[in-house]
Amino acid sequence: MHSDNASKTAVRTRHYRELLVWQKAMSLARTVYAETESLPAKEQCGLQSQMRRAVVSIPSNIAEGHGRLDDGYFRQFLATARGSLFELQTQLELPGDLNLLNQARAGELMAACEEVARMLNGLLRSLAH
User: Fold this and answer.
1) Which residues fall within 8 angstroms of residue 129, CB to CB, at 6 or more apart?
2) DSSP code for 93
3) Which of 8, 16, 30, 73 lies at a CB distance of 3.0 to 4.6 Å from 63, suitable for a disulfide?
4) Looking at the whole model, is its pTM more than 0.85?
5) Which long-range contacts (CB under 8 A, 24 or more apart) does 33-36 make?
6) Could you give the CA distance from residue 16 to residue 121 in angstroms, rounded to a whole number?
7) 3-class DSSP state for residue 58?
8) Rg of the chain taking only CA atoms, in angstroms
9) How many CB atoms lie within 10 A of CB 12?
10) Which positions ≥6 away from 25 have C-beta within 8 Å?
11) Burial status of residue 109 (CB atoms within 10 A of its CB: 0-12, 13-18, 19 or more)
């Protein structure tokens, strides 16, 4: 078997919970949920809800794509996860700029997003045809 095919099969056959990118995305989701608790009440139906939906979408799409057992679908769902990650990064900038989130904490969340983005990009490259 060609080594590229072997690495693709290995990624696809592991349980999604074993994927480090899924684990990191879940950690990011937990952290965003905790951090958005401190947003003002007037943002609970707006920015808080939007950020939570975006962050939940990241590990959810990784898991769903993995479950499709097809590299093409997996790539598509990984790309969707990456889009949700970029959405979250945009949403993190605003409360940081408006001092609704602690600047240092917002920076840490952005760094965690960058780590997940690098991992998603690497996984996408490994699945490229």
Assistant:
1) 71
2) H
3) 16
4) yes
5) 35/101, 35/105, 35/109
6) 17
7) helix
8) 16
9) 17
10) 58, 59, 62, 81, 85, 116
11) buried
**Fold for domain 3-126?**
de novo design (two linked rop proteins) (1.20.1440)
Cα dihedral sign, 8-14-16-19: negative
pLDDT in tens, 11-27: 555 699 999 999 999 99
Q: How far apart are CA 76 and CA 65, in angstroms?
A: 7
Question: Which uninterrupted H or E stretch holds 17?
Answer: none
What is the Cα–Cα distance from 1 to 21, expressed in whole angstroms?
A: 26
**88: nearest Cα among 65, 110, 119:** 110
Per residue in 35-78, pLDDT (tens digit) is 999 898 988 889 999 999 999 999 999 999 999 989 999 999 99
Asked if residue 52 lies in contact with residue 19, where contact means CB atoms within 8 angstroms, the answer is no
Tokens 């939570």 belong to: 52
Contact of 94 with 47, CB cutoff 8 Å: yes
